[in-house]
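REQUEST FORM: STRUCTURE PREDICTION
Request ID: SP-0412
Submitted by: Lab K.M.
Chain count: 1
Length (residues): 114
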Amino acid sequence: MAFHDLEIKRIQNAADAFMAARRPPAHIRKALDYDYTLHNQTIELLEVRPRWDNPAEIMKRPFAKATYVKASNQWRVYWMRGNLKWHPYEPPVASSIQAFFELVNLDAHSCFFG
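STATUS: Completed
RESULT:
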């Protein structure tokens, strides 16, 4: 079940605040930037950069994901490994969308930003 409008706005505000704090300076954003997508009950954080062999083509690669589980009122947190598969992060859940962004920003295991 998708979120209602108020929840979507709350998630977008949290994502926008994270992006404002985490995005690289404006002069670097053509080479590296971040974005997010919200689909149904999942938010994905994306790395945006030009393709290495064709700089005119922009690639968006997901690196973090959280899926809301209504039954437990928690967000399941995942990271994308080099094999391009999602793996549970440690800790595997966040109590709120803000807690998810705090986990990603802290990146205690160097899974999101290296």
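NOTES: The chain has one domain: 5-106.
Reviewed by: T.R.
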